[in-house]
Design goal:
Number of helices: 5
Largest sheet: 4 strands, parallel
Helix content: 40-55%
Low-confidence stretches: none
Radius of gyration: 16 Å
CATH architecture: 3-Layer(aba) Sandwich
CATH superfamily: Lumazine/riboflavin synthase
Structural class: alpha/beta
Strand order of the largest sheet: 2-1-3-4
CATH topology: Rossmann fold
Oligomer: single chain
Strand content: 15-25%
Length: about 160
């Protein structure tokens, strides 16, 4: 097996156009890095941590399934007129941090938490802040951190 990581992109489809731009930025980083990836779309940002945990758990049920070595979480949460934004943003980020620390996961967090759609586009656009690309770079950096601590399972030679 290759020593290049296999990455799961978990993409929130609540704001699909913004997420597509985030994914475009992430894929532009992952491709040249030579890693493989698979994208999973989920309804919203709140569902991303559950999808990542499901991917981890699925290894227990299928020995022939390739495990994910790292994860990129992409989506957007835009403040509305109620406190719903605060709950979704806080709990989503908390759940991702819990996954990262409890399961020693390499996660690139690219979930935008913004006041309005204009701020989201400024951060999502590949030719602006490119937070999707930034999340992919963070993911790859954390893969290297895991390697330094020898936290990847041993793989049988191909």
């Amino acid at each position: 097996m290759s020593d290049k990581p296999h990455v799961m992109i978990a993409a929130s489809m609540f704001y699909p156009n913004i997420t597509e731009e985030l994914v475009r930025g992430a894929e532009a980083v992952l491709g040249p890095a030579g890693v493989t990836w698979k994208r999973f779309d989920v309804p919203g940002a709140f569902e991303i941590p559950a999808a990542i945990r499901m991917a981890i758990r699925s290894i227990e049920f299928s020995i022939d399934r390739r495990r994910y070595d790292a994860f990129v979480a992409l989506g957007c949460i835009i403040r509305g007129q109620t406190s719903h934004y605060d709950h979704i943003a806080q709990e989503t980020v908390r759940a991702l941090q819990t996954l990262a620390t409890e399961y020693t996961l390499a996660i690139g967090m690219g979930i935008l938490t913004v006041e309005n759609e204009a701020q989201a586009w400024e951060r999502a656009r590949v030719d602006h802040k490119n937070k999707g690309g930034e999340a992919a770079n963070t993911c790859l950096a954390m893969v290297e951190t895991k390697r330094r601590f020898s936290l990847f399972p041993r793989r049988e030679p191909a």
